[in-house]
Write a structure and sequence with these properties.
Elements (H helix, E strand, L loop, with lengths): L3 E13 L4 E11 L8 E6 L4 H6 L5 H23 L11 H8 L7 E3 L3 E5 L2 H11 L5
Length: about 140
């Protein structure tokens, strides 16, 4: 099987900028088109907040979930856009490009991490592993 390169970024919920405490709540990964297959964008977010409520009792559930839902909707739209990109318009992009299209860099409590990357033979398996590994409390 042919290896594919990919890039990813983790979505963090930063409860308090002063203390720097955060919880990983999502991940985005981009697999550019290659001889191994067409371009693929994958976005996933956490939909449960039980663990977060224990860490941050004053977390506003409805507002947080509303933000996460909006990120999920934007991610699904971009996934479809990349999937139908027959002209290769995104061939020189990375996960950070798509992450900023979903959620701009600002001082809100939801922040994208620095870009990471690697190579894989199985994009779906790698994405699932990234999503599960990136949900460790930091």
């Amino acid at each position: 099987m042919t290896k594919r390169r990919f890039s990813f970024s983790v979505l963090k919920y930063v409860h308090d900028a002063l203390t720097g405490e955060f919880v990983n709540v999502g991940v985005i990964a981009y697999f550019p088109a290659s001889s191994a297959g067409p371009a693929m964008l994958k976005v996933a977010t956490q939909r449960t907040i039980g663990r977060m409520r224990k860490m941050f009792p004053d977390l506003l559930r409805a507002e947080f979930l509303s933000s996460i839902d909006a990120i999920g909707r934007s991610g699904r739209r971009l996934e479809a856009e990349v999937e139908t990109d027959e002209l290769g318009l995104y061939s020189d992009k990375d996960a950070a490009y798509f992450a900023r299209r979903i959620l701009v860099d600002d001082d809100s409590s939801l922040q994208w991490s620095a870009l990471g990357g690697g190579v894989t033979e199985d994009p779906a398996k790698t994405f699932d592993r990234l999503f599960s590994l990136r949900h460790e409390i930091r």
